Amino acid sequence: MHLHNPYTDLPAANSLPTPAPAAAPGTPAQQAFTEAVARVEGLRQRLRELQAAQAEARRRYWQQVGPAANTVVQARQALFVPLEEALLLGYFSRLEEQQITALLLGNARTLQDRFGEDAAEMLRKYAPRRRTDDTDEEDEEKVPAVATPPPPAAAGQAPHEQAAEAARARRKSKQQRAEEAAAQAGRNQEQALLANTKTLYRQLARAHHPDLSRDESTHGQRTQLMQRITEAYEANDLYTLLQLLAETAPANQTDDTLLARYTQALQQQQTELKQRIQVLQYGENGFGATTGKKREQEIRQLKRHLKAEAEYLAQVLQLLQEPAGLRQLLRELATEGHDTV
User: Fold this and answer.
1) Measured between alpha carbons, how far apart are the two ends of the chain, in Å?
2) What sign has the CA pseudo-torsion 70, 75, 76, 78?
């Protein structure tokens, strides 16, 4: 007699029916649009997390480094008065006066670039005047001046960091400004569709307004959905409207051409978000490049460097009290190939 054993008489694995993968809902244009929205949302979340982490890292960083940096700033600011007074003495040669001017400019640029201090007045006072010839005037006519707004301040960014960033923006050349203007124009063209919430609001309202449906069973659901759509429109929150479109729009009521345009704009947004994330992780501030013990080691080393710099600047200030000491400093700098301290 043959008894059936359900534990040993199972069918072979290759004889089991394999369920076909479920087809993604919607047209290819809808699928691409939905994927683009999901990717943008993931990048936005990643950016928010990085910004929060960097704000905390920046707070800890300046809590530890700030006092030492302030000491150096005060020491450098103290050099301006004796250097300017030396230019009025008539004691130094023309070459030495040029060296003193270079020393003033170098000190001002250091304060501005490294510490974000406002040294614009000193730079305007002693920076050499640039001559503008006919070629420059022609270039100015070909490349219109572009008003470059100051970069947005990062969350928790120290004031001197903001000032340093603004200073870097002011020093951009005409070619850099023209290139940035062209790139911005391209981004504006790509994002023109994303700047208009009215078109998307009307499309969603036509599809989901409760008064346009005869099905009473869905009236409550449509009312809630329409409330979300209206709130997003009144807040000019196009991204929420895009999410609602990706979640709710049926294939037979969505224009594939319009979705393709939204998808293209979202892909451009992905590129920009990735660039912002890259800057946060590996930019000049470097708050995301290292963490933990390595970051603490870097902070300790920087504090040692700042302390040594402050001590050196105190010695320089002592030399500046006498013309002979300043002349000795100028000779030492020239021998080492430096024009500033």
Assistant:
1) 102
2) positive
- Let me know if 143 is exposed, middle or buried by CB neighbors in 10 A (0-12, 13-18, 19+): middle
Contacts of 212 (CB under 8 A, 6+ apart): 206
Query: Of all helices (H) and strands (E), which one includes residue 193?
Result: none
Q: What would the pLDDT profile of 297-327 be if each residue is shown by its tens digit?
A: 888 898 999 999 999 999 999 999 999 999 9
| pTM exceeds 0.70 | no
Q: Which residues of 52-87 are buried (b: 16+ CB within 10 A; e: fewer)?
A: eebeebbeebbeebeebbebbbebbbebeebbeebe
Phi, psi torsion values for 337, nearest 5 degrees: 80, 25
Task: Using CB atoms within 10 Å of the CB of residue 187, give its burial: 0 to 12 exposed, 13 to 18 middle, 19+ buried.
Answer: middle
Q: Find all residues with CB under 8 Å of 286, minimum gap 6, and list them.
A: none
Rg of the chain over CA atoms, in angstroms?
A: 32
3-state secondary structure of 19: coil
DSSP 218: G
Report the sign of the C-alpha dihedral through residues 302, 303, 304, 308, in that order: positive
**How many CA atoms does the CB half-sphere of 159 hold within 13 Å?**
3
